[in-house]
Amino acid sequence: MTLTYAQVWWLILGLAALTAFIKAAGPVLLGGRALPPPVTRVIVLMAPTLLSALVVTSVLAAGRSWSVGAHTVGVAVAALMLWRRCPLVLSVLVAVLVTAGLRAL
Predict the structure, then answer these.
(1) Tens-digit pLDDT profile for residues 40-97
(2) Distance, CA of 67 to CA of 74 (rounded, Å)
(3) At what angle do helices 70-83 and 37-60 cross, to 10 degrees?
(4) What is the DSSP string of the chain?
(5) Using CA atoms, how far apart are residues 34 and 39, in angstroms rounded to an integer?
(6) What pLDDT is attached to residue 60?
(7) Distance of CA 103 to the CA centre of its chain
(8) What are the residues whose beta carbons fall under 8 Å from the beta carbon of 100, sequence distance 6 or more?
(9) Global pTM exceeds 0.70
(10) DSSP letters of 71-83?
(11) Cα(80)–Cα(72) distance, rounded to whole angstroms?
């Protein structure tokens, strides 16, 4: 089944409206009240968890299969350097150089 341009734009508009409705539902339903502490703890942990999942799938996935390559080693080097409290710019530069060097081999 293929969609026409008009159907795609209607789908985009519908999803945008649904997103706005979902975002507005929280403040409307809470009415200025604070969230319970267990809910707050879960929400605080969601951003790092989702970011980790995105990084892992970006680094280890190649299409529909898992793979380890030069980019994986570069990200691992950057992670190790950041863990050792090296500056971010230096970590990214070294990761780029390691990845490029491994790809050149």
Answers:
(1) 999 999 999 999 999 888 888 888 888 888 989 999 999 999 999 999 999 999 999 9
(2) 14
(3) 140
(4) ----HHHHHHHHHHHHHHHHHHHHHHHHHHTTPPPPHHHHHHHHHHHHHHHHHHHHHHHHEETTEE---HHHHHHHHHHHHHHTT--HHHHHHHHHHHHHHHHH-
(5) 10
(6) 87
(7) 25
(8) 70
(9) no
(10) HHHHHHHHHHHHH
(11) 12
Cα-to-chain-centroid distance, residue 4 = 30
In the structure encoding, which two tokens stand for residue 34, read together?
A: 């604070």
**What tokens were used for 58?**
């970006």
Angle (deg, nearest 10), helices 88-104 and 70-83? 160
Q: How far is CA 57 from its chain centroid?
A: 9
Q: What are 79's two structure tokens?
A: 């992670």
